[in-house]
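Protein: Rab5 GDP/GTP exchange factor
Species: Copsychus sechellarum
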Amino acid sequence: PFSSSTRRKMNLKSERRGIHVDQSELLCKKGCGYYGNPAWQGFCSKCWREEYHKARQKQIQEDWELAERLQREEEEAYASSQSTQGAQSLTFSKFEEKKTNEKTRKVTTVKKFFTASSRAGAKKAEIQEAKAPSPSIHRQASIETDRVSKEFIEFIRTYQKPGQDIYKQCKLFLDTMSHKRDLSIEEQSECAQDFYQNVADRLQTRWKVPPEKVEKAMDEVEKYIMTRQYKYVFCPETTDDEKKDLAVQKRIRALHWVTPQMLCVPVSEEIPEVSDMVVKAITDIIEMDSKRVPRDKLACITKCSKHIFNAIKITKNEPASADDFLPTLIYIVLKGNPPRLQSNIQYITRFCNPSRLMTGEDGYYFTNLCCAVAFIEKLDAQSLNLSQEDFDRFMTGQTSPKKQESDSFSPDVCLGVKQMCKSLDLLSQLNERQERIVSEAKKLEKDLIDWTDGITKEVEDVVEKYPLEIKPKSQALAAIDSENVENDKLPPPLQPQVYAG
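Structure follows.
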């Protein structure tokens, strides 16, 4: 397979190195006829690449099969534990159940990955978990958790070898966190933030993944991790998050009398389109509590903020500014009174990917929401340009703000406030007219009923005084041309004569 000149060059190089080379040793082990390299196990470069690619694909396939088998074993362990304890019903309330979980949790749900020794230990540990008395293990995994797990596995398939590494790191992190339930929520937050940073660094430095793909992968990692950790780290009983939630809700209820004019909100809800935007903004900020992933909660805040900007733009016919946005956001929070507001804010701060909070529009809108909550907590008479006496009366419910009379306006009051007061006066007049019409209609209805009863009584009296005598109906006469001739009793000249023809 080699020319004479090629053989001479190879022999010459070998003689210079003091090595005797047989021609049969130079051939590729696969028999393709090309020169084989000892560093490549005797294959030529082309055959070596083919063999390496086959071995690599085989290893990837074996790794995926192992990952799927471990996932199935984990799901079967959950299902078996659920069936054995199906007759028991958990009647604890939400916070009582949390307290029991914190005291009796001895669950290890994730095992070491890609090691032969860990597979046997994983199965044994799952059997022990099924026997554990923790009530949290008896609860069947939610549909959302199963869906997120499947979506995460499908996503990391596209990353091939880096995806396997991501899956392995996530499993190890969940396994580690299951043993750290006794740590404070701040320490668990630090663990999660360190994990985010380590995974991002591994993707960038070790696997050379582009920045845009790293960001997308980190979003999926956060979604997978926090969906599984949500019930343990959201509003834990070891913190005062629940107490703060109740305090904020009570404070917002006490401020129900605050009007948009007091906050200088540049939004007119009399415009139907603006009113729809306000309703959508309130819906989005309330929907935040139903999400599990910090990124999804941030998305609800972002959608709410964009509806606010659109409402301001429609009202003012110009783009909204930051000075207009914050008062309107405060008004939306006061009007919507979102559930567990402080818990959601703390959850996002502790477990959200830090790159989202420090950059982008999500971080900006979240910062404004934190400022709005802080403003509501410290709201006083000076913030609303009210006297302390009026503020105290409004807070205690002794009275409520009254509209200003149109004649008492100062010259510097804007036209919008004047027009609003005129509209309120007109509505008050219409309300009085409506009440008057309803009163007259009820009176007319009563008169009609009395007149009907009077006429009915008069008719009954007349019938009683002059009773009607109904005579029997007389027998009708038969027609002249009737066939019943015998009963007609006509005189002889008029009787019909029948002639036999």
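Remarks: The first helix runs from residue 4 to 17.
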